[in-house]
Amino acid sequence: MHPPEEIAGVVRSLHHIAIAVESIEAVRTVYERGLGLAAGEIEPVPEEKVNVLVLHAGGQRIELVEPAAPDSPVHAFLERRGGGLHHVAFEVGDVDAAVRELRAGGVRIAGDGAGPGAHGTRIAFVHPRSAGGVLVELVQDPRTSRAGDDG
User: What pLDDT band is residue 9 in, cutting at 50, 70 and 90?
Assistant: First the structure.
C-alpha cells in the first residue's frame, strides 16, 4: 500500500489500520481467539474521546477504536456509517513538521493539528477531502521516531 500522493513526502511506513466499533469487548474475542491476534490492554485516549485496543497481526498493527463519549468523533462516524474501517495511519518522523509541510502544500488538516494519541504517540489527521475520501492519521511514535526527522 502506497500513501496518497499528497502525503508521500512525509510518510515513513504504514503504522496501523483502525476499525471503528461500538464496543471493543463485544468484538474482541473474534480478533483474539477467532483470528489469533495478540492484544494488549484497552487504553483510553481522552483527547480524542475514544478507547483503543491494539492488536498485532504479524508485524502489522490493527486498532479497534470505540467511542468513550457521546460527542466522540468515532460516535458520529458510527452513527453515519456503522462500524468498519475508520482510518489508515502512517508513521512520520516529526508530526508537527509533517503538518506544516502538508498545510504549505494545500492539504487540509482536520482539527487544530497535532496532539496526543494512544501509547505516547503524537498524532494529526489529514481530512478525507485531501486524501481521496480516506481519513489519514499521521503518527509520530516515540518508540521509532525522532523529532526533526520528517520522513
Answer: confident
